[in-house]
Amino acid sequence: MSSTAALAPAPPASRWPPPYLLYLGNARDHLAAKTARGLAHWRPQWCVGQFRGSDCKTTLGLPDLDFEQAVAAGANTMIVGVANAGGVMDDEAVQHVVAALDAGMNIASGLHQRLASYPDIVAAARRNGRFLFDARQPPPLAVGNGRCRAGRRLLAVGTDCSVGKMYATLALERELQSRGVRADFRATGQTGIFIAGAGVPIDAVVADFISGAAEWISPARDDGGWDLVEGQGSLFHPSYAGVSLGLLHGAQPDALVLCHEPGRAHMRGLPHYPVPDLATCLEANLQAARLTSSDVIAVGVAVNTSNLGGADAAARACAEIEDALGLPCEDPVTMGMARIADRLQSCFAS
After folding, report:
1. Average pLDDT for residues 237-246, to the nearest whole number?
2. Are residues 122 and 156 in the same domain?
3. Considering the chain, what is the average pLDDT of its residues?
4. Where is the D-glutamate N-acetyltransferase-like C-terminal domain (predicted)?
5. Is residue 141 part of a domain?
6. Of 212 and 88, which is predicted with more confidence?
7. Are 201 and 305 contained in the same domain?
8. Which pLDDT value is given to residue 87?
9. How far apart (Å, rounded) are the C-alpha atoms in residues 234 and 177?
10. I want to staple 101 with a disulfide (CB 3.0 to 4.6 A). Which of 84, 124, 180, 198 is the partner?
11. Counted domains in the chain
């Protein structure tokens, strides 16, 4: 439900109608602006520009627009496209949101703290007749039941956080759809929800309901198509293994894609924890998934090679992983997912 349901009903066409102005604020690096970056990559046709604060350290390569310029360019909604520890806005960001509302835009946010918790933002939405949307507002959910359900599902899992699970599932959706295969990306994070227009924010779900949330976003289907479930966290990350396990059980995946960033020195945010060996990580995910999907298999490895220094190094890294695991390995952004899609289709040919 919209965080401002008491103010006005949500527009019927979309909870956060495009076109968008992407708000970067004072993001310190590209990961701090990952929500905006994901939208700019996967839905460029919706994005008219970016707004950057005076201390912003990153860019999306979009036109820099102020709020009035964005409205003149057609923007309907400003997406708060940043992520930070705690998921809150500072005073400057609140002032910017108010100014965007006064300029005539709706506001959508992927932060943990609800837009409606800021009185100045609520007042600005009311006086301008604008809407507020929080992507991290889960729907009512039931606990998972583990009952076998019809349809095919693939889940992206990872060696760590922020290794490309969303990119892998979106790229696979694009590849399968290009082949005439029914395939639907199922979002579990705020960026994916903005891209897909629907989903469930797993990191805002009470722990008992995580597996139920995965069941809710990938219900039974009988059309021969695939639900491609966006993974979160890693079984080997002490902070987020719980959400990863809940997704493995609730998704009941027929297939897994392992996501990895070669060269990462340690688990994200935890320099005292090394990144796991790929074979060990993959086997742990398969074993956990077998609780609710006894015949689950791995069909490929998706890698983020952006920090390897070029195409040759990326190709070598993929070749090494293929030799070690016996699975196709591709970078979803620079190589696509054709070979992983080939493997998926061949393993599940009807």
Report:
1. 96
2. no
3. 93
4. 143-340
5. no
6. 212
7. yes
8. 78
9. 28
10. 124
11. 2
Q: Which of 106, 134, 162 represents a domain boundary (last residue)?
A: 134
Q: pTM for the complete prediction? A: 0.91
User: Mean pLDDT across the stretch 68-81?
Assistant: 97
Domain containing residue 65: 20-134
Last residue of a domain, one of 74, 99, 134: 134
Residue 69 placed within a domain: yes
Asked if 71 and 125 sit in the same domain, the reply is yes
Residue 7: which pLDDT band, with cuts at 50, 70 and 90?
A: very low
Residues 121 and 227 in one domain: no
